[in-house]
Amino acid sequence: MTKGILIFAHNNPQIDYGLMAIISAGLAKKNLKVPVSLVTDKWTIAWLKESNMYSKAESIFDKIIEVDKPVTKNYRKLHDGFNSQTIPFENSNRFSVWDLSPYDKTLMIDSDYLIFSTVLNEYWDIEAPVMMSHSMNDITGDRAGILDNRVSETGIHMFWATTVMFDKSPESQFFFKLVDFIKDNYRYYADLFRFSPKQFRNDIAFSIAKHIMNGFETEFVYTLPPVFTIFDKDILLDVDKEKLIFLVDKPLDCGSFWASATKGVDVHIINKQSIIRNKDKLLELI
Amino acid sequence: MDERLQKALDFSNYRQTLAIQRKTLKEKINARLTYGCNGGLFKIDQTLIAFVQMLINEGRVENIPLIDINENPILIADLNAFRDEILDRYFSATYEYLEEYQKIKSSRTVEKLLDL
After folding, report:
1. CB contact, 8 Å: B29 with chain A?
2. Which terminus of chain A is less hemmed in, N or C, by CB atoms within 10 Å?
3. Can you list the domains of chain A with their CATH numbers?
4. What is the pTM of this model?
5. Is B20 on the interface with A (CB under 8 A)?
């Protein structure tokens, strides 16, 4: 059985997802010791070449799979500490991962998910068609809101598509086809499950697919570990060897931070600009 | 030192940083105590270790079904090897926990907590 990791990266004018994918892939490959492939588009490849990162990408990725850049009307407000901007969010082709993955068992991770441990290696042999993270853990433990745990205030449980592991069984194929169907009928499902359709979110589409595939039940059997999350109002300030130093946003105290650090822990850093700012030190870790 | 970090450190609530560091450490160790084996997933804790050792003491060492964290039966062919593996992992994780916990406990400033 072949196993490997797949990362999607589609650049936009504000965020160099290709570079983030190189960092994420390098750390995943180093710590989990499995091959990593990239799904990207010709524009992102062109920028990797122009920014002299393509040879690095070729050395890190097992395969670079070129696809059409997804057409999007999807925008999201992304913070960088207390600054924010509204950016295009090209995330609507994740359903195609089943067809694109060259591996029998695939771990799909977001490009802002940095792997510093071997924890996910414990999950490769589990016989489950699709596994996702059942929850998100905020670094402070108390800033996650109801919409981080459910698709809406009255909706179903939300699983996190930051990490998704799947095999090449017919069941997992149905699952991803269903995600595609939900994406195409997002307004209907938004009405049914009472969430805002303004922004397409893979977490929501995947959660609904999982809910339907489980016979309209929420099931927590065989899930991936919680996604340890650093919000976009937090800042990755520095990287000191394998230690990541964060400024953690103090709720209700605008402009103030707590200091914190992680080491040996897999982290989902939503503040993408702060990953980019620390690219040199992160690339040194690979 | 970066001005924002200096400001954060100056005003940071020591207890909050301590709590975050302890929570992060706990989660890290909990994750390390998860063991995937034969398609099942086990939480390595005192209960599992004691149960496995009891089975070995009773002479039941081959082809033993154990219930994993998802309450599925997982066949363990060689229980001695399984016991050795979970003990190795348990001690490796808990010694690390002890070492890092003591470091945190004895740190009286945010800078020391973060080992800056």
Report:
1. no
2. N
3. 3-284 (3.90.550)
4. 0.92
5. yes
